[in-house]
Amino acid sequence: PHLLIGGMTGSGKSVFLHSLICSLAESHSPKEVQFLLIDPKMVEFMVYERLPHLLEPVQYDTDKAIAAVQSVEAEMDKRLTIFHENSVRDIASYNDSAVGEKMPRIIIVVDEVSDMIIGMEGEPNNEFVSTASRIGERGRAAGIHLVMATSRTDSIVLSEPMKASIPARLAFKLYGEECSQAILDAEGAEKLRNSGDALLRDSASPIRVHVPLISDADVSKIVDSVCRRSNNG
């Protein structure tokens, strides 16, 4: 339901995020899937500013991004209350029985989550960590999912509250065993080879995977295609 991604610069994190966003946008309508895209580095997600699937405009400012994530947290609580009132367990059950408009799944994608967690003075932003942890704990039933990537794999960014609520981890090449332990709770990511080479861990031992390559030109073409399809109804 949620995914935490670690890897050194150039290892393939952003390419994976692009492949994920494009795949979901291409295969699902805005009524089925909506995105909250957060890009503190202001380099990756500009291409998606026209995407009809956006829940909010692409977020570049960390303070505004935290407020947007808190709005999604409020939406999560609202949905869970509706489920309780309708005697259903989760979004799938609700949508199966819904007579009117169905609820879309919401995917929060953060390209560099360390910028959201570490404040100006180098101290953890407990406001964001608590919000993300709570969504990690309760968001699955409400159809709200976190995908967060970071090049900084240390105990400040990958704190126990963050890791406890996001059991699925994807590690690209890292600098050493300590970094691999921080993201995967296991060694191995320091031995990975080329860009896109990764270890995926959800509950059992890590398995080796290779993420798809998607070029900037491909991303633009897919966004254009999705926008045209949306405009044509």
Spell out the key features of this protein.
alpha/beta; 233 residues; 15% strand; 7-stranded mixed beta sheet
Please give a structural write-up.
- The protein has 233 residues and is of the alpha/beta class.
- It is 42% helix and 15% strand.
- The chain has 8 helices and 7 strands.
- It has a 7-stranded mixed beta sheet, with helices on both faces.
- A hairpin with a 5-residue loop joins β6 and β7.
- The longest helix is centred in the N-terminal third of the chain and has 24 residues.
- It is globular, with a radius of gyration of 18 Å.
- The two termini are 30 Å apart.
Q: What's the end-to-end separation, in Å?
A: 30 Å
Tell me the helix content.
40-55%
Q: How does the major sheet shape up?
A: 7 strands, mixed
Can you count the beta strands?
A: 7
Summed over residues and divided by their number, the pLDDT gives a mean of 93
Low-confidence stretches: none
Strand order of the largest sheet: 2-3-4-1-5-6-7
The total of helices stands at 8
Share of β-strand residues: 15-25%
User: How would the global form be characterised?
Assistant: globular
Rg calculated over all Cα atoms: 18 Å
Structural class: alpha/beta
| Helix/strand order | EHEHHEHHEHEHEEH
